[in-house]
Amino acid sequence: MKKQFFSMMAASIIGGVISVGAYTTFIAPQMDIQQKEENKPVAFTKYENSPKRADYVIPDGMNFVSAAEKATPAVVHIKTYVDVSSRVPRNTPRFFHEFFGDPRGGNGEGQLGSGSGVILSADGYIATNNHVVDGASKIEVVLEDKHTYTANLIGTDPTTDLALLKIETDNSLPYLAFGNSDNVKVGEWVLAVGNPYELTSTVTAGIVSAKARNINILRSKTGLSVESFIQTDAAVNPGNSGGALVDLNGALIGINTAIASKTGSFTGYSFAVPSELVKKVMDDLREYGAVQRALIGVQIQDVDQKIAEEAKLEDIAGVAIVDVNPQGAADEAGIEAGDIILKINDEKIESVSELQEYIARKRPGDEVKVTVNRSGKEKDFNVKLKNTNNTTEIVSAPKNSSEAIAALSADVKPISEKQAAALGLNGGLAVTKLQPNGKLYNAGIREGFIITSVDREEVTNLDDLGNALRGKSGGILIEGMYPDGQREYVGIGL
């Protein structure tokens, strides 16, 4: 028993010695090292500070940097103002001021809105959207370097939602060269450059999602609106309107115009007017002050499966002619209702929007070869395009207010304050005499009609009417009422 006790004591002593030795030899030093490590200052991750990134290579077809550097200096911020002393009634509802701010300041001007524009030439011509400048009494252009200019409105085209501005400066402005939107392919990368929410020089990227899109956003007053948009998924928001859509070479391939959204903000798709159409409209406005619209003179619709089967077409594509305008270009060339347009100048036409864009690039007097399917056979017709007045002449926009008012072919005079108050108007112009076969006469207007607005712009006096009509061409919308309170809306062509 004693032997067993002493054996256990000896084992315990030996075990303790071993434990102390192990702690002293192995564990204690390790804990000391760990304690020292914990007391060291924390070091942050090191990053490469060299300004040159030799290992940074941009893959082919992904060089957004070069395109952005070319585009941003040529995209401007546009601010528009309205003369509220004549445009805003004194009893304007309170919510107007809460939403827009009270514009009735000391100088009688209030900001109407803002958007973007693209410099097209070194001497200061700028493209933007018509809806950006519509109704403005003053237009300011802010360059990327923050220099500000007051712009002159050269002309507008509501049918394509485009407008041309001019600022007076030296011939050294950065500008974008036109690219060919016909060569743009679905799936290629593009950049949208503009001023969304007044965040200047904003660049977003996306791909071309589709071409020749019609989204029925340009509410036509004359049936002449052209919608053949380039659709992209580059983020575009309010303020981007009128800005640039460029390819990866930095060439202008479109003017950003609209978004498809239920919220008013970007939700996935944006739309741009293709550059080939923009170039033609800008050239017209610069040279003539008015867009030269060419027409075939037909009522049309897209070909569907039923039409394709009846016409025995190989593809469900083309444009079906529903009706032909008497003495129009198509009528004189021999085209008939029921024909299906397959090609223009040997280029395949698959939809109404494609046809409208192609013809909108032409001018009255131009000739095009139209290939149609008639009773299963293809036939070619040479069509000499006409203008909205059914002639082949080039038209010019009125250059001044007097010329603009004279274009209505009617005599007008301001209504009295008493009559305006009785009708709940701020003012207006009564038609006192109509010239036979004049613009208003042919539109069905009767003497006594009171003009209250032109293209949604309020008209209270002769100066208002002249300003609203000056520089306009093509279709315009005139709104007003008769002395008995009957309202009337008419579209006329200038």
How does this structure look, described?
The longest helix is centred in the N-terminal third of the chain and has 37 residues, at 2-38. This protein has a seven-stranded antiparallel sheet. The chain has a six-stranded antiparallel β-barrel with strand order 8-9-10-13-12-11. Strands 14, 15, 16, 17, 18 and 19 form a six-stranded antiparallel sheet that branches. The chain has helices spanning 2-38, 64-71, 84-87, 94-100, 130-133, 275-288, 305-311, 329-333, 352-360, 401-406, 417-423, 439-442, 462-469, and strands spanning 75-83, 109-119, 125-128, 138-142, 148-150, 152-157, 162-166, 189-194, 202-213, 229-232, 244-246, 252-259, 270-274, 298-302, 319-324, 340-344, 347-348, 367-374, 377-384, 410-414, 429-434, 450-454, 457-458, 475-481, 487-493. The chain is an alpha+beta fold and 494 residues long. The protein has 13 helices and 25 strands. It is 24% helix and 30% strand. It is globular, with a radius of gyration of 34 Å.
Question: What is the structure about, briefly put?
Answer:
Helices cover 24% and strands 30% of the residues. The protein is α+β, with helices and mostly antiparallel strands and 494 residues long. The longest helix is centred in the first third of the chain and has 37 residues, at 2-38.
User: Structural class of the secondary elements?
Assistant: alpha+beta
Number of helices: 13
Strand content: 25-35%
Helical amount: 10-25%
What value does the average pLDDT take? 83
Gyration radius from CA atoms, angstroms: 34 Å
List the strand order in the largest sheet: 5-4-1-2-3-7-6
Question: Biggest β-sheet, characterized?
Answer: 7 strands, antiparallel
